[in-house]
Amino acid sequence: MHEVHSYTHDVDAVLIEIFNTFVGPPGGGAPMCLVALGGYGRGELCPYSDIDLLILHDEKKVAPEIAPAIRFFWDIGLTMGCVVRTIDECSSIVGQDLATDTAYLENRFLCGNKELYLRLFHSFIEPYFAKKKKSFVKEMRRILHDELYSPETAVYRIEPDIKNGICTLRDCHRLLWAERVRVGLSSMNDLHARSYFTEAQTEQFCADYEFLIGLRSRLHRVYGRRIDILETSVQPDIAKLCGFGPEGAGKLMERFFKTVREIRLLLLSYLEKGPTGANLWTNLRKRVSAVEASPGIAMCEGIFFTTDKYVESAIDPAWILTIFRQAMRYRATLSVALRNAIRGAVERLSQEDFKSQRVGALFREICSFNGPVGHIFQLMHETGTLSRIIPQFEDVVCKVEYDSYHEFTVDQHILLTLVAADDLSRSREPVLAQLYAQCDSKVVLRLGLLLHDLGKAMPGDHVVNGAIIAETVCERLGLDDDESRRVRFLVYQHLTMSELCFRREPERHVLEEFAAIVGDVKNLDMLYILTVLDIRSVGRNTWTAWKAFQMEQLYKSVVDIVTLDRPPLPQGGTCRDEDWSVSYERDTLPEDRQRHMEWLAALARGELQLHCDRFDGFERITVCGWDRMGFLRDIIGCMSSEGYNILGAHIFSMREGKVLDVFYVEPPQYPVVSSDKRLLNIQKKWELITGGTATADSLIVERLRQYPLKRLRAVMDKADVHVSIDNGSSLCLTIVEIKTADNFGLLHRIVQCLNKNNVNISSARLSTRVDQAVDVFYVTDAGGGKIDDEEKTRRLIEELKTALGENAVGAMGP
Q1: How many angstroms separate the CA atoms of 233 and 458, rounded?
Q2: Percentage of the chain surpassing pLDDT 90?
Q3: pLDDT of residue 811
Q4: Alpha-carbon distance 510 to 527, whole Å?
Q5: Measured torsion, CA atoms of residues 473, 475, 479, 482, in degrees rounded to the nearest 10
Q6: Most buried among 75, 470, 716, 774, by the most CB within 10 A?
Q7: Region of residue 381 (phi > 0: left; psi between -120 and 50: alpha; otherwise: beta)
C-alpha cells in the first residue's frame, strides 16, 4: 500500500503544479478546482491506471486557461480521464450508471477553489447518496450476492483477474461503498468501529486488501501497462517482487487463493447480516419456522446456524460429519459463523481424531447419496474437514499446474468434477445421463473423482502415485475389497480413455486390449463418466460436441467387446488385419458406406465432390476425388482458408485411383456464411489450385489478410514443438504425434511437410487443449510400410519441428 500511496502523492504534486501554473492559485482568477475521482480519488493509484479528474468550474466565469491545462496533462504521458463540468452538469449525469455514481462517491479535493469543492460535496454528492442510501446499499449487496453465488471455483482460476475477479479488489470496494453510504465509513480500518465486524475481521480484511492492491501495482510495473490478469507467464516475476523468491510462483498463488478465500468468508458474513447490520440469524432463531436439523443446529431459508443449545467445546468429528450429512439431505448451506466454528474445531483436532468407523461410515454415506453432493464437498474442503478425512488432499490445496490446459488449481478441479457430476442428470448426452442415473456404486465413482489427481502432489507418474494413495484411503474409510479394487482401477486408468479417444485410432487389437483391462461393464461405465467429468472440469470450453461424439463412439465400441466376451486378438497379427478396407469398415457406418459407393461410382474424371452432414456442434465433410500428389494438402488448404477448424480426418485411397476423405470440422464464427455457401467456395478455390492460378499457401495468406487474427502471447520456436514417432502401438502403421501451440493453418503445414518427405497419411486424430494442439497421424512410407528406418525418422522429426517452429503463423485459429 505504501508504494501505491507514494505514487498517488507524486502524481498529486505534478497535477497540482500544472493546474496552478495554467489556471492560477485559488486566490485569483475564476472559481475552479481540481478533484480526483474513482480509484485516484481513493488515493490508490497503481502505475498505468487511469487518472480520473474533474475540473469543476463556475459556468458564469469560465477561464480560457482550462484547455491548455488539459493538453499539458495529456502531454506529460499519463493516462487521463479528465472532464470539465459545473455542479449542475455533475448533478445531471448521476444515476445514469453505477460506475459514474461510485466515481463521484470516491472524490478527493486536490487544489483550486476549496469553497467550490465544498459546494459540490454538500449540495450535490452528500444529498444524492443520502437520498439513494437504501437503493444503493441494496444494489451493492445484490451484486455481491450474484458474484459470491456464481460457481465457486471461479475464485480459484490459475490466471485470476486481480481487479474484477470474484472476491478481489472490486468486490472489496462494493462492501466499502455500501458502508460509506450506510454509516459514513471513512476508512476500511474503521469497519469494526462503524460497521459490525470484529477487530480481528477488520485487521484480516485490511491485510488481504493490502496484498491485492500491492499485487496489482507490481503487475502493472512488470507489464509496463495497465493489465489486471495475473497470467502464468509473469507469476515467477511477480513472486520475486513480492518476496517469494525466484521459484516462488506456487507460493504466490497459494497466498492469493488463501487471500480471496478469507475475503469471500467476510463478504458472505456481511450478506448474512441485514442492511442495517443486525444478524439475520439472531432473529430467525426465534421464529417457529426454524427447523432443528441436528442437535445444536437449526435451519431457516436453506441455511444452517447454531442454536442456544450449541456448545463449541462439544464439537467432535462425528458431529461435524453429521452436520454435512444433514446439510446434504436438506440441500442446505452453512452460515459463515458455523463454517468458522467448524474450521476452528478442525484445526484443534488431528487426522487421527477423524480416523474412526463412525466418521468413515458417515463419509461413505455422503459419497453414496443419490442426489447432489458437490456443494457439500466444497464446504468440507473450505472448513478443512476434507483434508482431515483424506490427509493427502492437503497436499494439492492451491496447487497450480503450469501447462496452459488446467485453468483451476488441482483441489478446485477435483471439486468441480463432483459439482459437474450433480448436473449429469440434465446432460444433453442421453447415454451419459442414463449411465449416471443407473450407477449403483456412486461411492466408488465419487471417491474415484476425489482421488484421481491426488498423485500430482508427488514427483513421478501421478496415476501410479494416485493408485497407491487410493489403496490407503479406501482402507482408512472402510471400503470392502471389491469397492477398493474399483476405486484403484478408476484412479490408475483415468487418462486411458481420453488417450485412446483423442490420440489413438481405435484399432481392433487396441480396443480388445483395453477391454481386457476394463474387465466388466460396471468399470467401463464409471471410467467413461469420470473421463468426461475430468475433461469438462479442467477449464472453459474443454468439452465440445465433437469430443462428446468421439468419446461416446469409443464407449459403445468397447461395450460391444466387453459384453460379447470376445477373445483378445492373438499375438503376431499381420497388417492384413488392418489394411484400408478393414479400417474403412471400422471407421464408417453401413448407411454411409452405401452413399460413398454411390458417390464414387458417379465421380467423373477430374471431378471433386463435397458432401456435408451437420451434427450438433460440428459438421462432417466427405470429399470424393482423384488422387494425385498434394491432394490432401490442397483440400486442407481450401478448407482452412474458409476458416474451418479441422477436428479429425480419415483418409482412404480407394480403387481406380479415387480418394475418399472424411473430415470432421467446426465452422468459423465469422463471417456468418451457410455451409452450402462455404462448400461452393471450397469448390471454386479447388478449381483455382488445379488451374494453376492459386496455391493452398496463397489461399491461407489471403484468409489472414481478410480476417486478421490476434497474436499469440509468446513467439513460438522449434523448442516449443514436440514430435514423437511410435512404431509399436499399431500393427502396420507408424504413429506420428505432434504437440505444439495451436495456430491457424497448422494442419496444412503438417501435411505439407509430410508430403515433402513422401509420407502417406492414413488417418488423423486432432485435438486442442485450450491453445495447445495435440495432433496424431497414422502414416506409412511411399511403399505402404512402416517408417522404421532410424535416419528417416530422425530427419522427419527435425523437419516437422523446423516447419512448425520457424514458419508458424503467430496467431490463434479463428
Answers
A1: 23
A2: 40
A3: 37
A4: 17
A5: 100
A6: 470
A7: alpha
Cα distance between residue 496 and residue 503, in whole Å: 10
What type of residue sits at position 97? D
In the predicted model, what is the mean pLDDT of residues 560-573? 61
The answer, yes or no, to whether residue 284 has pLDDT greater than 70, is: no
Half-sphere exposure of 73 (CA within 13 A, CB side): 27
Four-residue CA torsion sign, 175, 176, 180, 185: positive
Percent of the chain with pLDDT over 70: 88
Four-CA torsion 713, 714, 715, 717, nearest 10 degrees: -130
Judge contact between 741 and 625, C-beta under 8 A: no
DSSP of 540-569, one letter per residue?
Answer: TT-S-HHHHHHHHHHHHHHHHHHHHTPPPP
Angular region, 320: left φ>0, alpha ψ -120 to 50, beta rest: alpha
Residues 485-533 pLDDT 10s:
999 999 999 999 988 887 776 677 888 889 999 999 999 999 999 999 9
Rounded to whole angstroms, the Cα distance separating 270 from 284 reads 16
CA–CA distance, 161 with 192 (Å, rounded to integer): 28
Average pLDDT of span 5-32: 82
Other beta carbons less than 10 A from residue 728's beta carbon: 8
47-51, 139-143, 363-367: which has the minimum mean pLDDT?
A: 47-51
Contact at 8 Å (CB) between 511 and 531? no
Q: Let me know the angle formed at the C-alpha of 713 by 707 and 719, rounded to the nearest 5 degrees.
A: 110
List all residues 6 or more positions away from 51 whose beta carbon is below 8 Å from its beta carbon. Answer: 11, 15, 36, 40, 45, 78, 79, 80, 81
pLDDT digits over 198-220, tens only? 898 999 999 999 999 999 999 99
Domains of the chain (ranges; CATH) run 2-131 (3.30.460.10), 135-278 (1.20.120), 591-806 (3.30.70.260)
DSSP E strand stretches across 594-673 = 609-615, 618-626, 645-653, 658-666
Q: What is the per-residue pLDDT for 436?
A: 93
Per-residue pLDDT, averaged over 450-472, amounts to: 90
- CB atoms under 10 Å from CB of 434, counted, come to 14
CA separation for the pair 455, 462 (Å, rounded): 4
- Cβ neighbourhood burial of 471 (10 Å; 0-12, 13-18, 19+): middle
Please answer whether residues 749 and 807 qualify as being in contact, where contact means their C-beta atoms are separated by less than 8 angstroms: yes
Amino acid at 69: A
- DSSP sequence for 401-467: --SSS--B-HHHHHHHHHHHHHTGGG-S-HHHHHHHHH-S-HHHHHHHHHHTTGGGGSSS-HHHHHH
728 phi and psi angles, rounded to 5 deg? -105, -25
